[in-house]
């Protein structure tokens, strides 16, 4: 980092706290991510694109959201939990698993209703719609889904809207 970039980081350090507040994160859980975002912003900043603070704020927010999506994708069970009930809904192309754990407040009736609901939805979806729905359920962004399927992000958005419209009828 150049001296000018370091100076930008020092002068705009307070932006980190505003960004954490916006995303309802404690300093403990989000400071490191926001600080990395601030440093990345300083490294990539171009004066022609506008004010540094606006740019840095967006970069920090993107860094936080990127980590949030990653954590949703790599869902792990809480420590000290024991799974005692599990059921799968869907079909061969698109399935979802509902797992209840000891200490979990989810009730069996809720799981059963969701299973039936998802099985009904999956019956009316095309293969592409099922893949999009599956990927979104595990936390992929629309851009990531589009890249994986080789289509545009607006196409993914349109297909998700179509799915919602079909489900809500």
Features:
169 residues; mainly alpha; 2 domains; 2 strands; elongated
Question: If you had to describe this structure to a student in words, what would you say it looks like?
Answer:
63% of the residues lie in helices and 9% in strands. A hairpin with a 4-residue loop joins strand 1 and strand 2. With 169 residues, it is mainly α. Helix 2 packs across helix 3 (27-44), helix 3 (27-44) crosses helix 4 (52-73) and helix 7 (142-149) crosses helix 8. The model is unreliable at 74-87 and 98-104 (pLDDT under 50). The protein has helices at 3-11, 15-22, 27-44, 52-73, 108-123, 127-137, 142-149, 153-167, and strands at residues 83-90, 95-101. The protein folds into two domains: 3-73; 83-167, Winged helix-like DNA-binding domain superfamily/Winged helix DNA-binding domain (Arc Repressor Mutant, subunit A, Orthogonal Bundle). Strands 1-2 form a two-stranded antiparallel sheet. The longest helix is centred in the middle third of the chain and has 22 residues, at 52-73.
Global morphology:
elongated
Mean pLDDT: 76
The biggest beta sheet reads:
2 strands, antiparallel
What class do helices, strands and sheet pairing give? Answer: mainly alpha
